[in-house]
Design brief:
- The protein has 223 residues and is of the alpha/beta class.
- 35% of the residues lie in helices and 11% in strands.
- It is built from nine helices and six strands.
- A four-stranded parallel β-sheet has the order 3-2-5-6.
- α7 links the parallel β5 and β6.
- The longest helix is centred in the N-terminal third of the chain and has 16 residues.
């Protein structure tokens, strides 16, 4: 049984008994035995462990974990300490610097965002080295869509940052009118110049949180 140590335990306990998850679990056991899979098994659910349901203020939705060694640790776009910034994260930091007039530095560990209420959720929570999207369509999307549905039911408003076409499609699950959806192109170097650069999302997030009488996110705070 998966244990998060917060209110996600009760909210998601039923998912682990469903047929799709049992199939996914069997698939993952084989994958971890036969191949190199990221993130490490104990880190798969870090996004939910670090950011509880009630504490979630912001959701940043990614695609799947980094597929190279020593990067993925269960948080979308984040890398472990001492790792160079991947291109998408470098562009995210550049946008924050432009919007908020702060120097972000070179540490790409975003655990400090998670502890402030930023749910860093990938659509797919595992990947086989070195193949991006190698665990797509295996069942994770059903699980993570359920997370979004649960968040959609929240009474308190949440800000959803949906970057890129795949993330943007998740807006169909966010029907509660008091939530806020902010869309832009993906921060990848292939698309960042379309609408991610200059999107103003990080500044807008904090303006909304202050308006709602919540603490703004300290984007620069180090782990």
């Amino acid at each position: 049984m998966v244990y998060f140590g917060n209110d996600w335990d009760d909210l998601l306990s039923g998912e682990f008994q469903k047929e799709y998850y049992q199939t996914l679990k069997s698939f993952l056991l084989t994958e971890y035995q036969q191949y190199t899979i990221f993130p490490p098994m104990n880190d798969i659910f870090n996004a939910l462990k670090y950011t509880s349901y009630q504490d979630t203020k912001v959701v940043i939705f990614g695609q799947d974990p980094y597929h190279n060694p020593n990067q993925a640790h269960g948080l979308a776009f984040s890398v472990g300490d001492q790792n160079p910034l991947p291109p998408s994260l470098r562009n995210i930091f550049c946008e924050i610097e432009q919007e908020c007039h702060i120097a972000m530095g070179t540490c790409g560990n975003l655990t400090h965002w998670a502890h402030q209420g930023v749910l860093l959720l990938n659509a797919v929570l595992t990947v086989r080295y070195p193949i991006a999207n190698s665990h797509k369509g295996k069942g994770w999307e059903i699980f993570t869509d359920e997370i979004i549905r649960r968040l959609n039911e929240r009474t308190n408003p949440i800000i959803f940052l949906l970057w890129g076409n795949d993330a943007g499609k998740k807006s169909r699950l966010i029907t509660n009118p008091h939530h806020v959806i902010l869309k832009a192109s993906h921060p990848s170097p292939l698309s960042a110049y379309q609408s991610f650069f200059g999107c103003g999302h990080f500044k807008k997030v904090n303006e909304l949180l202050v308006k709602w009488k919540q603490l703004p996110i300290d984007w620069k705070k180090t782990s």
